[in-house]
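Structure ticket #2291
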Amino acid sequence: MGIIFMINLLLRNLKCHLFSILQKITAYYWHYFIILIIGFCLAISLDLLEKPAIAQIDQAIIQEILDGDQVFIEKAIAKVEDKAQFGQVVLTKDSRASILFNNGAAGRLGINSSVTVGQCVEVQEGVILVSGQVNGCMAGVTIAVQGTIYLLETTDGKSGNVKVIEGSVKVVSKEGSGESVTIKEGEKIDVLQGILGQIIPMSPEEIISILNGQLFSGFQIPITMDGALQSACSRLLPGLSCSTTGLPSYPLPIPSVPFSIPGLPF
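Resolution: structure written out below.
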């Protein structure tokens, strides 16, 4: 009996000793575990901050129609204030149009352009100018924005280019590894079925051509109301200024040749 008692006593002591060791190990490593959890949560939150919230577009309202009446929603001729719903196609032929999205963002379609209203504004053909919280997609890429002015252009839906007039956008390939690049104000990039080209700056002549072209000329409703376009013009085109419609205003030259008035001593 004495031997059994001694064995039980030793086992209890060993159990208490092991429990004490386990407590010390747990206490020692617990703060590392807490740090790991905090770091994981912080990484997730930073990743979410880097990714702009995708603006859900459910509707696009026709605001202006220029150069005739060749604007359609699906196959029906559209009029000002007509609405394209989620999943519907807005199409232009020999006309141009401006549209207002349900989240307050705006767009302009050039001639022979086709876009689908949806989670992103998908360009199948032609060109669209976008201002505000509207993500775009075409040619195997998505364009994520946080409020900017940019242009999408494609001839066949497989290749095209992205041009940024104000702000910046993140262009993400939907193919392969999901490569992404950030395009800043005054830059452009070519895309081909999800393959991203090289980022290059737009020349002043190209920017002026855009601001004097079909996406600005003749439109009466400003593409943005907060002065962002005018500010971008002053940065991209020093010496020129833009009106709310985007057309550069050329300052009149001031004669620098001195002249004198007869009869006066100077």
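Closing remark: The longest strand covers residues 121-132.
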